[in-house]
UniProtKB/TrEMBL annotation:
Residues 246-278 are annotated as: Disordered. The lineage of its organism: Eukaryota, Viridiplantae, Chlorophyta, core chlorophytes, Trebouxiophyceae. This is Fungal lipase-type domain-containing protein. SUPFAM superfamilies: alpha/beta-Hydrolases. Residues 125-180 form the Fungal lipase-type domain. It comes from [Myrmecia] bisecta. PANTHER family: ALPHA/BETA-HYDROLASES SUPERFAMILY PROTEIN (PTHR45856), FUNGAL LIPASE-LIKE DOMAIN-CONTAINING PROTEIN (PTHR45856:SF24).
Length: 278
C-alpha cells in the first residue's frame, strides 16, 4: 500500500543527499535542501555515513538505527546530466541469463560513458540485491521509492524485480521527460506508478485512461524532472488537503504533513535531479 507520509519523508532524504557534506554542522542555517538533523528525526535514525565513489561520481547517504536503515542515492545534479539520462543502452543483469532475442534475458540501463549507474538505477538494484541476498537470513520489509526514474530494464527484469521487491512506487511528476522515456525501446517499468503535479493531484496506480489523459502530445518537460519541481508538486498535494480536492481525513493529515515538510518548503531554489531512496 502506498503511504504518502513515507513518500514525503523519503523525498526529504532525496533532497538531502545533494546538499549534505560530512564534517559540516548539521544545525548551521544553509541554502542546501534540508539538514541531516531534521532527516534523522523523521524516522528516527541515530547514525549516518556519506559515501562518494569518485570515478563514477556516485553519492549515497546511509543512516540507520536498530533494525531500520535508509539509503538515499543522488541522481543527476545538472540539466546537462539530465540530457545524458535521455540516452542510454542496456546491459545484462545478471549476465548470461535467458535469451535477449526472446525477451527473457533480464537487462538494465547503463550510462553511455560507463560512469556507473545513476541514482534511480542504483536505488532499484540496491533494493533488489538486498532482498535477494538477505531475505533468507533476515525478516525484511524493503520499500523503494524512485523519484523521476525512467524505465530501467526490459520486461524480463521487470517481472523478476516485481517478485522480489513488490513494495516499489515510482513517483512521476506530470510531464517529466526522463520518467516517461524508453517505452518504445522495449523498456518496462517495475512496480506501480504514482502521478503528482503542481495542481495538487495525486493518482496512485493510474489506469491507462488516467495516465493517457495527463500526457500531452509533445508535452515532455525536462524542467519537471528537476528535484525542485517534485518538491513543489509534493507540497501542492499537501496544500490541496485544505481544498475540495482533499481526501477523507485529508485536512488533519495535511496539517501534520505541512509540519514535516516545513524545512524543505523554504528551500525551493536548487536545480538537482531527483534521486532514489530505499
Amino acid at each position: 500500500m502506498f503511504c504518502f507520509e513515507t513518500a514525503l519523508k523519503l523525498q526529504y532524504w532525496a533532497s538531502l543527499v545533494y546538499g549534505y557534506r560530512e564534517g559540516l554542522p548539521a544545525t548551521t542555517p544553509t541554502t542546501r535542501p534540508g539538514t541531516l538533523e531534521v532527516g534523522m528525526r523523521l524516522f528516527p535514525l541515530e547514525q549516518s555515513e556519506m559515501l562518494w565513489e569518485k570515478q563514477g561520481d556516485t553519492h549515497v547517504l546511509i543512516a540507520w538505527a536498530g533494525n531500520r536503515i535508509v539509503i538515499a542515492f543522488r541522481g543527476r545534479a545538472s540539466l546537462a546530466n539530465v540530457y545524458t539520462d535521455l540516452q542510454a543502452w542496456r546491459t545484462s543483469h545478471p549476465a548470461s541469463v535467458g535469451h535477449a532475442w526472446l525477451g527473457t534475458h533480464a537487462m538494465v540501463l547503463t550510462d553511455l560513458c560507463h560512469r556507473a549507474f545513476h541514482g534511480w538505477l542504483h536505488g532499484e538494484l540496491c533494493a533488489f540485491d538486498i532482498q535477494q541476498q538477505l531475505a533468507d537470513t533476515f525478516k525484511l520489509a524493503v520499500c523503494c521509492m524512485p523519484f523521476g526514474a525512467p524505465r530501467t530494464g526490459n520486461h524480463a527484469f521487470a517481472r523478476a524485480y516485481d517478485k522480489v521487491v513488490p513494495n516499489t512506487w515510482h513517483i512521476i511528476n506530470e510531464q517529466d521527460a526522463v520518467a516517461h522515456k524508453g517505452k518504445c525501446m522495449m523498456y518496462k517499468r517495475a512496480g506501480p506508478r504514482v502521478l503528482i503535479n503542481p495542481r495538487g493531484d495525486l493518482i496512485v496506480r493510474p489506469s491507462l485512461v488516467e495516465h493517457s489523459l495527463r500526457r500531452m502530445p509533445g508535452g515532455s518537460s525536462v524542467k519537471q524532472h528537476l528535484l525542485t519541481s517534485y518538491r513543489k508538486s509534493m507540497l501542492a498535494v499537501i496544500n490541496a488537503q485544505s481544498t475540495q480536492k482533499r481526501a477523507k481525513s485529508g485536512y488533519e493529515a495535511g496539517k501534520g504533513a505541512r509540519h514535516a515538510a516545513g524545512a524543505s518548503r523554504q528551500n525551493l531554489k536548487g536545480r538537482a535531479r531527483p534521486a532514489t531512496v530505499v
